[in-house]
Amino acid sequence: MTGAGKKDRVTFLAAAWCLSYPDAELVGRVPLMRAALGEFPGASRPFAVVLDQLEGTDLMSLQAQYVQEFDLGKRHALHLSYWTDGDTRRRGEVLGAFKKVYRGQDTLVDTRGELPDFLPMVLEYSATVDMATGKELLVQYRPSLELIKFGLLRDNLPHSDIVQAICNTLPGASPEDEQAVMKMAGYGPPTESVGLDPYDPRLLPMRGA
After folding, report:
1. N or C: which end of the chain has fewer CB within 10 A?
2. Domain that holds residue 68
3. Is 159 within the bounds of a domain?
4. What is residue 159's predicted lDDT score, i.e. its pLDDT?
5. Which residues of the chain have a pLDDT value below 70?
6. Which PANTHER family match (predicted)?
7. 36-45: long-range contacts at Cβ-Cβ below 8 A with a sequence spacing of 24 or more?
8. Is residue 120 part of a domain?
9. How far is CA 6 from CA 10, 17, 40, 111, in A?
């Protein structure tokens, strides 16, 4: 494996962990992440603030902040197909396609109660099972990644640097703003909802990505 390939695996796995719900096990992995990222020049920079927070903040506060920012609303939704299909019925087919990818490698993926398009899950799959196929998914959902990043940036959350680090491993430069992302991917609100949380009008999901 090339040096770039190893760097991408380390970046994806560290990102998967840093974007997941924090628990004692995750906090215990911080030294491992620092050591692994430190093997590649510049790789640790996007993770620095989040790793410092994991080590320097009590666990209950970390968990409360994660729930507030990632679980209670859709502003920073980490489910890739939410940004392309919203809460429409078509999304069920998309989620089935994610499961099919995982099954195609004869790999038992522990969803841990999450939908299969959960970004940390896709990243962990890419890093530990099949980087090529995982990257294909990330390229396909590049607009979702970019919109997640811009949402995190808007709310001044350091996880935005981690998502940008993921985008930097993919072909092409990141769009300059959300309007450019929407233009690239095709924009339009979902035509039918299954009754979940209402959309932030500034962040309507895209269709046709």
Report:
1. N
2. 3-203
3. yes
4. 98
5. 1-2, 87, 105-112, 184-209
6. NITRATE REDUCTASE MOLYBDENUM COFACTOR ASSEMBLY CHAPERONE (PTHR43680), NITRATE REDUCTASE MOLYBDENUM COFACTOR ASSEMBLY CHAPERONE NARJ (PTHR43680:SF2)
7. 36/10, 37/10, 37/11, 39/10, 40/3, 40/6, 40/7, 40/10, 43/7, 43/10, 43/11, 43/165, 45/161
8. yes
9. 6, 17, 9, 25
